[in-house]
Amino acid sequence: MPPTSDWTPEDLLAYDREHVWHPYAPMPATAPIHSVASARGVTLTLADGTELVDGMSSWWAAIHGYNHPVLNEAITGQLGRMAHVMFGGLTHEPAVELARTLVDIAPAGITKVFFADSGSVAVEVAIKMALQFWRNQGLNRPRLLTVRGGYHGDTFGDMAVCDPVNGMHQLFTDVLPTHVFAPEPPAGPDEDYVHSLGKLVAEHAHELAGIIVEPVVQGAGGMRFYDPSHLRALRALADEHGLLLILDEIATGFGRSGAFWGADHAGVLPDIMCVGKALTGGYLTMAATLTTDRVAAGISAGSAPLMHGPTFMANPLAAAVAKASLDLLAARDWRSEVGGIETALREGLDGVESLPGVAEVRIMGAIGVIETSIDIDQQKVQNAVMAHGVWLRPFRNLIYTMPPYISSPDDLTRITTAMRAAARTLG
């Protein structure tokens, strides 16, 4: 592939290090950054020619892999018609088609779609919806109930419902709204936990607009899985006290956990739900907040509409590729693909729990997690997995993978071998 500029790889990385801020990193960067020249299938090709199997799906988004011809065609075809147009007072076919698809595949009762331009914004909109729903009824319910161990995004409303103690946003605790936090949901059924949830909700119900959780899988807050019975308990408590249930399906939606929606494991229906990440197959940033007729009517009944409108709301390029991605997912046997990944992860990580420094191994659907008993040396672990031709992004005490659904058995063997090698660096 010919170079796209006159940068040498060394010059590019040097400039990046001094001037380009990367996620969750200092400036200037203190850890090595790797320049990607191209990506195809599940493979990232670095500027020096190194090829790495991407075990992260680019932060869980590229479920179909990279450079997919169907998705390429969707985005280039739309590009020839219209790259963008404001959504205020205008609409377009890609947005309407995508909205119809989302309503068709959403849990029963979900009928309204608000397009956002990132997962964090989708959660902000969900919070705003819940608060405004009650304000329009003349009730001041300024707080939400959630659980410890959660992560919902990096903007201010989102940070306030992330774990306030063990999450990544403790620095801002004193300037964030104060919400109500229940303990982390247990991995198995626990009647005492459900009882304590009931007491906590009852105590605060008069001030709660709703309950917000990630269904069954807690993502960036700790990659924990919890028993579906606890999600059913939260739905029942929301109904008992007339609260809205917000489900953050940004990481769990579109099959990642083995069910299409995380909520499907519990058989519950949300009042508001957020989707993102895999929505566009990893091509462009787009998310959505979905809700019911009842919630939409309650919000719209007041003197002010929902005051939110991102500049790139319902971007036609993103909408077109999202629709193509969802159609592609529907046409694939994604359940078998995710089930095959789960089996491969279980087999490939079998016995890792016995290694020194490993606290637990957890697997659900296309998610594999090695939790360590100490914080890891991120660079040491990164080097170990790259030496095996794999790209992972470990953090804190977690070495984990969320591979693309198209990953082959050989790809998955390489990923689990790399994870084993990473775990051995702990001892």
Automatic annotation (TrEMBL):
The modification N6-(pyridoxal phosphate)lysine is found at K277. The record marks Y24 as: Participates in the substrate recognition with KAPA and in a stacking interaction with the adenine ring of SAM. Its cofactor is pyridoxal 5'-phosphate. Pyridoxal 5'-phosphate binds at G119, S120, D248, P310, T311. InterPro entries: Aminotrans_3, Aminotrans_3_PPA_site, BioA, PyrdxlP-dep_Trfase, PyrdxlP-dep_Trfase_major, PyrdxlP-dep_Trfase_small. It is found in: Cytoplasm. It catalyses: (8S)-8-amino-7-oxononanoate + S-adenosyl-L-methionine = S-adenosyl-4-methylsulfanyl-2-oxobutanoate + (7R,8S)-7,8-diammoniononanoate. Keywords: Aminotransferase, Biotin biosynthesis, Cytoplasm, Pyridoxal phosphate, S-adenosyl-L-methionine, Transferase. Pfam families: Aminotran_3. Pathway: Cofactor biosynthesis; biotin biosynthesis; 7,8-diaminononanoate from 8-amino-7-oxononanoate (SAM route): step 1/1. It is an enzyme of class 2 (transferase). Its EC number is 2.6.1.62. Substrate binds at W59, Y151, K277, G309, R393. Catalyzes the transfer of the alpha-amino group from S-adenosyl-L-methionine (SAM) to 7-keto-8-aminopelargonic acid (KAPA) to form 7,8-diaminopelargonic acid (DAPA). It is the only aminotransferase known to utilize SAM as an amino donor. Belongs to the class-III pyridoxal-phosphate-dependent aminotransferase family. BioA subfamily. PANTHER family: ADENOSYLMETHIONINE-8-AMINO-7-OXONONANOATE AMINOTRANSFERASE (PTHR42684:SF17). Homodimer. This is Adenosylmethionine-8-amino-7-oxononanoate aminotransferase. It comes from Actinocorallia longicatena. The gene is bioA.
